[in-house]
Specification:
This protein has 489 residues and is of the alpha/beta class. Helices cover 53% and strands 9% of the residues. The protein is elongated and about 115 Å long.
């Protein structure tokens, strides 16, 4: 079973190379916490080396896939993007993480969801894989986008919503656990607390007379996998380059001597956390392995079937060309229908398009244009008076002439024609937009795309002309006869 974690690590590396997970939900542990919760110290304590970037604001700006490998051959680090290079100086590892982050995100504290894969080999670590995610923040700093909080939240959710992802929720002990950002996010995706492992940091910084005993005993906000308490190095220790081994000894002494924690000393500390995570990840992989293997086998079988079909494929064969053309046409037709019906795979979150825009034109824009047609009541009364007087001429009538009524009604009915025709033009323009977007998906066949767009646009234009003619006929019909026997009169 000890070899399970390295196997999953190789799968992660392979998927990173191809830029896709192939739909497989790999077992993993994601580290989640707010800024200054102590995430970096947790990871560095597990490795026994200072290697993570530090500073104010958002320091982790890309997911860091940290693969720890136990070996007796020495200590070194390797990056997936820098194959062949061995880093024995962990200050150089920190610099490489910073440079690789800036290369992808720039130096303005922006973020990216493209991970950095780092392997660390050491005799002082257990086989373990952790994904360090950016710390949650509330306020944009410097040139950061205004929605940085939503971006970070979205990135974290991208990992922890997966059922096979264990969540290492890091929370500082010197703040109210009920307000923990990490536990709040974990609760959203894991309401039963089945996948969440709680880590309580900064136990030595709690106010005098207070402790986190009930939390570590899993009595307050209980999690199935429980809580583990650790003591981080202080900023003074970090600035003073305090050795992590000395810090581990000080941590052990703290738990053994503290009245509230000495009965839990064997279930607290970085060494216990590392053993627990190794055991839990191994067990988790063992539990998920059958389903993972079944899905992977099915994908391999599907790919082998496709390869068999293409083994003797002749691209110049007219039958294959016809088959490919029909497939393109069917996909185009399906995409067009999905855009209208609103069931497409890709949802545009920036603007309305397709069926949504056509619905807006019919139900909001067109009624608004019709309302604008209504004239001022005072002007209408003046027109009615002039119409009656002009029709009566030198005669003095006792009743309102029927012709005056028809003249006024026809004048306002005729005003409906222009907004109706504009509505048809706007709908036709959106349909042409859908046609062009569908054509972009078959751009590898430019002649087919051009001919398909030409035929569809011509058909759309023909239908537009027919629709306008029908609307003009409808308005002309209404103008030709006034049915005063209608119930609305």
């Amino acid at each position: 079973m000890e070899s399970l974690i390295p196997i999953v690590n190789r799968l992660q590396d392979a998927f990173s190379h191809i830029g896709s997970s192939s739909g497989l939900d790999l077992p993993q542990i994601a580290v989640v916490g707010g800024q200054s919760a102590g995430k970096s110290s947790v990871l560095e304590n597990a490795v026994g080396k200072d290697f993570l970037p530090r500073g104010s604001g958002i320091v982790t700006r890309r997911p860091l896939v940290l693969q720890l490998n136990n070996t007796k051959k020495g200590e070194w680090a390797e990056f997936l993007h820098a194959k062949g290079r061995k880093f024995t100086d962990f200050e150089a590892v920190r610099k490489e993480i910073e440079d690789e982050t800036d290369r992808m995100t720039g130096s303005n504290k922006g973020i990216s969801n493209i991970p950095i894969n780092l392997r660390i080999y050491s005799p002082n670590v257990l086989d373990l894989t952790l994904i360090d995610l950016p710390g949650m923040t509330k306020v944009a700093v410097g040139d950061q986008p205004k929605d940085i909080e939503q971006q970070i939240r979205g990135m974290i959710m991208q990992f922890i919503t997966k059922p096979n992802c264990l969540i290492l929720a890091v929370s500082p002990a010197n703040s109210d656990l009920a307000n923990s950002d990490a536990l709040k996010l974990a609760k959203e995706v894991d309401p039963e607390g089945l996948r969440t492992i709680g880590v309580i940091t900064k136990l030595d910084l709690m106010d005098q007379g207070t402790d986190a005993r009930v939390i570590l005993e899993n009595k307050h906000l209980p999690l199935r996998r429980g809580y583990i308490g650790i003591v981080n190095r202080s900023q003074k220790d970090i600035d003073g380059k305090k050795d992590i081994k000395a810090a581990a000894a000080a941590e052990r002494k703290f738990f053994l001597e503290h009245e509230a924690y000495k009965h839990l000393a064997d279930k607290c500390g970085t060494q216990y956390l590392q053993r627990t995570l190794n055991q839990q990840l191994t067990n988790h992989i063992r539990e998920t392995l059958p389903a993972l293997r079944q899905r992977l086998t099915a994908q391999v079988a599907a790919l082998e079937k496709d390869c068999k079909e293409y083994k003797n494929f002749q691209p110049d064969d007219p039958a294959n060309q016809t088959k490919a053309m029909i497939a393109c046409l069917n996909n185009f037709s399906s995409d067009f229908e999905k855009e209208i019906e609103g069931s497409g795979d890709a949802v545009d979150t920036r603007e309305l398009s397709g069926g949504a825009k056509i619905s807006l034109l019919f139900h909001e824009r067109f009624p608004y244009e019709i309302i604008k047609v209504d004239c001022d009541e005072k002007e209408l009364r003046r027109e009615i008076v002039f119409a009656i007087k002009n029709i009566s001429a030198i005669r003095v009538g006792l009743f309102t002439p029927m012709m005056a009524f028809e003249v006024m009604c026809k004048k306002h009915i005729a005003k409906l024609l222009d907004p109706s025709l504009r509505c048809v033009e706007q709908v036709a323009a959106e349909l042409n937009g859908i046609i062009q977007r569908g054509g972009e998906k078959i751009c590898r066949y430019p002649n087919l795309r051009d001919e398909l767009e030409r035929i569809c646009s011509s058909q759309c234009k023909e239908l537009e002309v027919r629709a306008k003619a029908h609307i003009s006929l409808l308005i002309s019909t209404e103008l030709s006869y006034m049915n005063t026997n209608h119930q609305d009169f």
